[in-house]
């Protein structure tokens, strides 16, 4: 068995919270990837009660801590695609993932609902790996 625990760090992307019942975009905090050479964003859906809602994922990256230099990452900097990270009403209680392999330091995710009059339960984490210094802190920092 190989150790993975000491090579990963986790940051909260979307904290668990009450259901979103409208089309308000859900914007994550800005994640600092300094010291890590890999990044995977994981979205976790709960029960989605609207029968025609869709939820589009977008990403922004930059080198400024406030993302004043924000840009959409090119497709070549992603493992997977934004449509694969997006979801609709039919994916109750499932996870979606997308990887970022670009050279920018900061990343932020947005999930934008359309036609949502039901409940959107969403949580998410960022998995940072391949640290420049290991082992990583436990609990994650």
Describe this structure in words.
This protein is globular. The strands form 2 sheets. It has a 5-stranded antiparallel beta sheet with strand order 1-10-4-8-6. Strands 2, 3, 5, 7 and 9 form a 5-stranded antiparallel beta sheet that branches. The mean pLDDT is 94. The protein has one domain: Jelly Rolls, CATH 2.60.120. With 141 residues, the chain is mostly beta strands. The protein is built from 1 helix and 10 strands, in the order ββββββαββββ.
Quick structural summary:
This protein has 141 residues and is mostly beta strands. Helices cover 3% and strands 42% of the residues.
Number of strands: 10
SS-derived structural category? mainly beta
Major β-sheet strand ordering: 1-10-4-8-6
The CATH class is identified as Mainly Beta
Q: What's the mean pLDDT score?
A: 94
Proper CATH architecture: Sandwich
- Quick one: overall form? globular
CATH topology name, in short, is: Jelly Rolls
Rg result: 15 Å
Low-confidence stretches: none
What's the SSE pattern?
A: EEEEEEHEEEE
Total helices: the number is 1
Q: What number of domains?
A: 1
Main sheet characteristics: 5 strands, antiparallel
Which percent range describes the beta-strand content? 35-45%
**Spatial separation of the terminal alpha carbons:** 25 Å
Overall helicity: under 10%
């Amino acid at each position: 068995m190989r150790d993975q625990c000491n090579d990963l760090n986790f940051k909260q992307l979307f904290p668990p919270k009450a259901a979103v019942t409208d089309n308000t975009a859900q914007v994550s905090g800005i994640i600092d990837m300094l010291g890590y050479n890999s990044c995977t964003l994981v979205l976790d859906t709960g029960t989605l009660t609207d029968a025609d809602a869709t939820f589009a994922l977008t990403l922004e990256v930059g080198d400024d801590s406030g993302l004043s230099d924000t840009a959409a990452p090119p497709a070549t900097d992603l493992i997977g695609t934004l449509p694969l990270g997006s979801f609709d009403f039919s994916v109750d209680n499932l996870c979606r993932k997308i990887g970022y392999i670009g050279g920018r330091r900061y990343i932020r995710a947005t999930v934008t609902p359309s036609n949502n009059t039901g409940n959107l339960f969403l949580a998410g984490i960022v998995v940072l790996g391949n640290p420049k210094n290991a082992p990583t802190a436990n609990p994650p920092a």
